[in-house]
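User: Show me a protein chain along with its predicted structure.
Assistant: Here is one chain, sequence first, then structure tokens.
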Amino acid sequence: MSHILEIKNLSARVPEKEILKNFSLTIKSGEVHAIMGPNGTGKSTLSQIIMGKNTYEVTSGDILFDGKSIMDLTVDERARLGVFLAYQSPIEVEGVTNSDFVRAAMKAQSNEDVSLFKFIKEYEKACKDLKMPEDLPHRFLNEGFSGGERKRNEILQMKMLKPKFAILDEIDSGLDVDALKIVSENINQMVSNEFGCLLITHYERLLDYVKPTHVHIMMDGHIVLSGKDELIKKVDQNGYDWVREEFNISSPSLEVKHAILGSCAHNQGNK
């Protein structure tokens, strides 16, 4: 079954500044959308708002999942619906093992018990696919992990939860070439008529391995250009200055630092 995630004319701010400005994007199952742009242009803010972070005030616009607004849904409700966010900086959770965390998430997602035998079989295969250490199930969540292990662990969770849409926020950050290839292979394997993906990055090398169906350049809180491989090549050769000059955009200011997800994005515009 195919699905559609629509972001329609979304604007959002924190008290001191506007971050997203009339942002619109439609992602369908089977599509991989890459959003590129320098730091501070609103990319990570976008991912957090899609997932339901309540730090931001959404002043206008809507987010639709298969035609229905999800703006009033909490983070966990969006996750159960099939939206997944891979963190830019995954946190450590002492006292909770990786396997217990994933199994609990699967149970919360389906509201059903997860067969232990089936879970172990799928988890071991996912670990093997991502070349994770054999003791991963028994280690505390991300504790003592390298940056690359944390990113691969996010993809492992995605493989186990099987979301309908995944937002991967700089999943390539901190990965060496070998780890990048492993992560990319696993992302590519998931793309199907039941799965779509939003890749957020400001590096081009990820897109050498995960081939996007759509490429967007984001600046000043919205998409300024869309295309395909030609945009990746032009950014690789010339950086982003030509985009700023063409659209008369000043250098970006820093985004707000991100905290752990809250309960729900507050949509002031829908009141």
